[in-house]
């Protein structure tokens, strides 16, 4: 499990949690301070999923979760 906080200027804070199991299946949770940024990235989930698959990960349809930070 990897956990990190990113703070890109245009997105605000983003907490990222990545779980990768022994088979290489990836599950990611991204929590945003900025609800607009969460919506924009959620709309690009297919692109992110495709890039992760190209990098060698197994990514199920429900493996990416986007939300607002509490």
What does this structure look like?
By secondary structure, the protein is α+β, with helices and mostly antiparallel strands. It is 27% helix and 34% strand. It contains two helices and four strands, in the order E-E-E-H-H-E. It has helices at residues 35-43, 45-54, and strands at residues 2-6, 14-20, 26-32, 64-68. The protein has a four-stranded mixed beta sheet with strand order 1-2-3-4, covered by helices on one side. The longest helix has 10 residues, at 45-54. It is globular. The model has no long low-confidence stretch (mean pLDDT 90).
Core attributes:
70 residues; alpha+beta; 4-stranded mixed beta sheet; 4 strands; 34% strand
Spatial shape: globular
Question: How confident is the prediction overall: mean pLDDT?
Answer: 90
Give the N-to-C terminal Cα separation: 21 Å
Number of strands: 4
- Please give the largest β-sheet: 4 strands, mixed
Structural class computed from helices and strand pairing = alpha+beta
Q: For this entry, what is the oligomeric state of its chains?
A: single chain
Please state how the strands of the largest beta sheet are arranged side by side: 1-2-3-4
Low-confidence stretches: none
- Helix proportion range: 25-40%
Summarize the helix and strand pattern as letters: EEEHHE
Round the Cα radius of gyration to an integer and report it.
12 Å
Strand content: 25-35%
Helix run count: 2
């Amino acid at each position: 499990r990897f956990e990190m906080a990113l703070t890109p200027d245009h997105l605000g804070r983003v907490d990222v949690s990545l779980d990768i199991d022994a088979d290489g299946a990836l599950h990611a949770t991204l929590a945003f301070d900025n609800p607009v940024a969460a919506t924009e990235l959620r709309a690009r989930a297919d692109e992110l999923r495709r890039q992760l698959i190209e990098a060698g990960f197994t990514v199920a349809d429900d493996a990416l979760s986007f939300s607002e930070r509490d």
